[in-house]
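pasting 3',5'-cyclic AMP phosphodiesterase CpdA for the record, 248 residues
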Amino acid sequence: MSNTLILADLHLDLWQRAGLNPLEQIDFGGVELLIIAGDLTNKPRVRWKQALALIGERISLNRVHVLPGNHDYYDFRLDGDDRLAEIAKAAQTKFAQKSEIIHGATRYLCCTLWTDMRLGAGTLEENAAEAARIMNDYRYIRVAHSGFRKARPFDTIALHREHVAWLEARLSVPFAGETVVVTHHAPHPLALPPGDSVPQAYASDLSDLIKRYQPEQWFFGHTHFAAEFQIGATKLRNVSVAYPAKTA
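structre below
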């Protein structure tokens, strides 16, 4: 996968607000496949088009696949993947939610993932309530099919279960080449910085799944924390670009 680039947490709208462009620091030379692993911008209905156009100045957009992170649902709706897919298609990119990408001898299995809310110190209900109090996800994301109410932790837990089930279904299909998983949320607590105050909103412990299927690599974002480690035969690495310093 030497000609593949995987990036998360570009937050291009925040960089633009700071008068900066993180893409200037990234080498796109020879890249045949770019996977954006979530958090391209907030307000995707009005900002994805411009953000993807900026990326298109560096690499042909027909080589780009984008999956949403939590911020890509801000001032939008959790059940809006159909609209995000339309925006991506209009920009000549591919929408990669629950998507298998075959490139050369490598398959990439992509999804947001979300979390199961079990890494906190309390019960599932206590962890979910704490996340609802602290995380902006549950202030700025709506659910259209329930009267445009604010999203709740158990909405994202349901999506986590759906995405894990999709991953398991795809991982169970033999593949002759290399298998790489790409998610926005982290699949293991080792991805978290020491003393993280809301671990349940950033990662889950998918050790059993990782050891059972042993994908060669797993890339993720969301934590904005440089982490690289190995679980069984699988190498895991954070690929967050993160916020510009002046907006962090």
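The domain at 4-238 is CATH 3.60.21.10 (Purple Acid Phosphatase; chain A, domain 2).
The two ends are 32 Å apart (CA to CA).
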